[in-house]
Amino acid sequence: MGGEAAAAAAGQEPGRRILVAVDEGDESVQALRWCLSTFAAAARGDTVILLYVRPAPPTYSVLDASGYLFSEEVTAAIDRYSREVADAVVEKAQKLCTLYSKEEGESHHEMKVEVKVAVGDARTVICQMAGKLGADLLVMGSHGYGFFKRALLGSVSDYCVKNASCPVLIVKS
Amino acid sequence: MGGEAAAAAAGQEPGRRILVAVDEGDESVQALRWCLSTFAAAARGDTVILLYVRPAPPTYSVLDASGYLFSEEVTAAIDRYSREVADAVVEKAQKLCTLYSKEEGESHHEMKVEVKVAVGDARTVICQMAGKLGADLLVMGSHGYGFFKRALLGSVSDYCVKNASCPVLIVKS
């Protein structure tokens, strides 16, 4: 809001805050590509916010297929793996942002990129973050966050289209 | 495609073709506003295509509440009314485009606006037109095309998010 007020005072339009939900899938990479090539403009002062939502670590006892309780070591390993995936996804997304900035030859107007990694249910977290971060647009792929979960809960993108406080752009591969 | 090839030959990026589905609702006006203020840029050579889909006229016998068949005069009157609504919606949308062009002070770069009025089921027609018109983006409100139809068939925007060949942007009021 501070930046927006300053830009308004200077008679400029404030840059737009574009929230891109990234995950492991190709569609989210395409969504980010679309955003960088077609929408976000560093010269306009836009900010691209990369958001990755990783699932909450299991805090209660979980039975594996053979009926044994997961040990603490196993849940810790799952959590560690999830953090590593988050790091890899975010790193790839950041590289893409840098690549597009260079391609655009906008070195004097480098794209502002913010990274957020949140934990929880992707559907609700993405919508909450869209509001909290003052996003002007939410960009995402249509099929993110896993087949089985989608079959059970409906797609994350459907939920966000209905519940996010800003316009939502869905990119399909 | 011809314009695109020419632009590519001249070393310019071709303007984007932005299909905006308009209807009687406020959300579609908001979607168009969003498109004009945030996305479409006359100076980039973008084209805004306004698409209104009106329902097919009843071609078979329809019973009214009292059990009488609709006469030909009645179906003709319904069809005439539907055309008038189409004209009114499209006119309002065109005025909004002109207004934004003037506000932007882009009189030397006036926004290219095309108008299409199609007849049929909005869901399928919008998706077909997105492909046929080579749209780079489809913009629409989330609640268009009537409450009862939506309750029966699901929302038009849900269908388009899943079936359109290009990225889809949904704007809510």
UniProtKB/TrEMBL annotation, chains A, B:
Residues 16-172 form the UspA domain. InterPro entries: Rossmann-like_a/b/a_fold, Universal_stress_UspA, UspA. CDD domains: USP_At3g01520-like. This is UspA domain-containing protein. It comes from Dichanthelium oligosanthes. The lineage of its organism: Eukaryota, Viridiplantae, Streptophyta, Embryophyta, Tracheophyta.
